[in-house]
Batch of 2 targets.
Target 1
Amino acid sequence: MARIIGALTSSHIPSIGNAISNGKQGDAYWKPFFDGYKPVLRWLEQEQPDVAVVLYNDHGLNFFLNNLPTFAVGAAPEYITKDEGWGLPVFPPYKGYPEMSWHVIESLIEQDFDIAMCQEMAMDHAFINPMRLFWPDENPPKIKTIPVAINTVQFPLPKPSRCYALGKAIGNAVASWPTDEKVVVIGTGGMSHQLDGERAGFINKKFDEMCMEALLNDPESLTKFSSLELVREAGAQGAEIIMWLAARGALQGKVSRIHSSYHIPISNTAAGVLALANN
Amino acid sequence: MIAAHSVQLTKQLIPGTYIFDGRMAMKGYNLNRMCYSFNSAENRKKFKAFPEAYCHSFNLTREQIHAVTDLDVLRMLQLGGNIYYLAKLTGIYGMTVQDLGAQQTGLSLDEFRAMLASQA
């Protein structure tokens, strides 16, 4: 039986990619941000997970508004990266795990999640940057991946409660996969930020800190928010915290904090990383 | 609980925030479709050479074309643009999200950066 060893949640701000490519991790602006990942890297080094289920949101690379699934699960042998339009580098493909993907898909449908299924899927910064942060020495890393895209582009967004339930269902799916592989669940995006409108630049530290605590001890409390309430509290794109909530939903054991770090601002965003162990 | 439906029919439910709901998606479909095309370097080049002609080829309205050629982000949002797609357009001109933030809030870039840092 495969086992979820923990959840890692991280911001995926585009400029992180360029900072890594240009070796700016030690610069005054970036150092506090990158230092926040070191304890998580030590944990990953020690645990050596085999599979990463990555909950992320596509920003108009793989999906356009003509065909936009609410939830989509990748079932490809590999996941390519492509030109997003503004200068982020394109990398060799990330490794997929189609056999396990189909198991997850079948299990999700059984659990009443009628997801879209994708045998080709291009990954954008929301997938790539957290992978580069968590596996800085290998690009692409050896770990097999199962991307799960959640719509945050077009309202209505899936309800936070539904995202949490999706995470739970993914947890069940992994638990019934008949190998002893170690699985880590990754949720990307956030924390509070708003790129558009007269309220651009909005950040809500208090709300982010509340979310970090709630994700550890009381995730159900976050399922009471509507998507619009998340927009109000966390900013238009801060609603991406639904990916963190989904990742947390996958943890069904005794949950403890490995590490968390929070830093304002990176680009227009309150950047956060949270690592939770599942025992 | 607040519902997105008909948000923009009256006033912004969350001040300074444009909720990209079905109504906005209908209004901005061609604008966003054009911006989606900027995932291709060749299309970015074509646009940059003849912006208006490129806009016409995606059937943008006159208002949308003006907003695009003026790089007026708030106006593009009001005309149905979605920020994830608009970023691909503004990126062609080397504008970062901080440049967009400064423009939309009427602050200088330094003032906008100071405003972000003040929230730490």
Note: The interface with chain B takes residues 14-15, 59-61, 64-66, 82-87, 153-156, 194-203, 205, 226-229, 231-232, 236-237, 264-265, 267-268, 270 of chain A (CB under 8 Å).
Target 2
Amino acid sequence: MTQTWHVTYEIFRKKGDQSTHYDRFEMKVDPDEYVLDGIERIWAFHDRSLVFSHACHHSTCGACGMVVNGVEKLTCITPIRSVTKDGGVIRVQPMRNFPVISDLSVDMTVFYQRMESVGHQPVVSVGFEDSKGKLDSEDDLLRLSDCIECGLCISACPIALTTPAYLGPAVLAGAQQSGDLNPCVLELVDSENGAWRCHSAYECTEVCPSHVDPAWRIMDLRKKLVARRIKKFFGVK
Amino acid sequence: MDKPQAIVIGAGFTGVAVAYDLAQRGMKVTVLERGPLVNGTSGRTHGLLHSGARYAVDDQESAIECIDENLILRKIIPQVIEPNGGLFVALNESDMAYREAFIKGCADCHISIEELTPRQALSLEPNLNPKLITAFKVPDGTFDPLRLAMGFAASANALGAEIHLFCEVQDFILDGMGNVKGVKYLDRSSNQIKKINADIVINAAGVWAGEVAGHAGNIDLPIKPTPGVMVAYDQRLCQRVINRLNEPGDGDIIVPQRKMITVGTTSFEADNLDYIPVFDDQVQLMFERGCELIPAIKHTKERGAFMASRPLLDSGTKGRSLTRTFKCFDHKESDNVDGLVTITGGKATTMRLMAEKTVDLVCQKLGMRVPCQTAEIPIHSYRKFHLAHNQEVA
């Protein structure tokens, strides 16, 4: 270790129907370690009952999204140094606007179903995704698309907080990315719980760890929806 | 007759693939995983879909398994794969000395390769070290680890398999003769102890397989957990997997994914498998070795650093020379404990084949004659994965 800090992790706990509370763990850490490293050590050495989600540890899978000191973070790439100081606190909560399974893990089932129903493409050409859909490249190189479906944008969204019916930033961005606005997708996104519900707070883009820029994509989706309506009004196909 | 009940311990790549294959062949399947999906070795892979070329010289059995399964996975689960191929790059005379053996090895293992001039290689991958001497194209790819597992889990779900996360096996239920009849586990999300009986239990706990098998008595599994470090950098500096043309060694691979690249890896032996620290000197080594292949890494920010522990099979040799193939143990044969099968070793790329061989053995033990079909049927969308019903929350 190059440097040692003493920090206190305050972890949200929830088991079944029992009342929720926070547990405190005093930890010695290297400030250049990632927040998730500390959580994993709490599980490995202090409390085996801790439930949290994680998989790839390098920001490709989106499993370890949590709220860290009030802000949505992908904990595997969030250096401890960036969220606290020596002697400070790291308060970790599960993401907002999702049902909590236990402690820090949430259930993403409904979110995944929505990503599926708007036709978000998990693998696309490199040029297409790098340009956020502006270039329809003939590139034969493919890559996994930017959205890692971590849910951080939905957790940070002030409108998602008001109603679970709102599709939320990642899903609307997914519809923009797929570009296939067929009648089923239109019914979802061109509606009160779709693109028009967004209040352009841009919190989603602020917390996105993966270059998606969902707020821009929602605005772009609105442009496409308006263009469609105008064309329809004038009978243009 | 009721469907036989199978329990799979572990929801890493092997566990979810076994669950899917068991369900496909008509069994009632329950998966118990102590954490979330792929929280151990499987999640923490750099995501290389092996062409097999890495093993074509030293471990041809693994190389052939890799290329065959690589082609199958591309077909059944393209939703999680960047199928762009890879390069093996020579930078010095020592690398060039490996060239002949590499060409011969790939031919022996039916891995199709193509030698490129330095100019051709640089036109494909402009960030490669311009001093490269030669390069070979190979059919590598990369995959998203969580979604690869979710896809198999979703296909298992669709056939009725139940996947219980955060459920840690505490003990086996044994009959009077010491045979396994079920498991006792702790549901960590509700803090309750639960039991399930089973006709067969499949231990797919990877590096932890020895610990799990130990609940059934004095069972010795030849697994040598062999961790390695991986370091992710914040730019996609190559479109294809970049390998060093040489004997397998530290920092010999760069894997692109989304907008980043990951450099791997090292190879040492570990004692505590539940937490393996990331060592600074190994991170520095990845940086230096990575810069040899792609010098622009020097000007790129680190995005993450992590450790994963390979569950290699112990054949009495050390580290890199351990075989990458897998083995299925019927504990009736090896330890006179019936009702328990362990599958371990292998690679992410060979997960489907590992499941096929394991379920062949399970079917044989249960007297079922159903062929494996997983190589032909497309995998469901990973987004169809769901938790077991009694774990759903309001």
Note: Chain A touches chain B through 55 residues (CB under 8 Å).
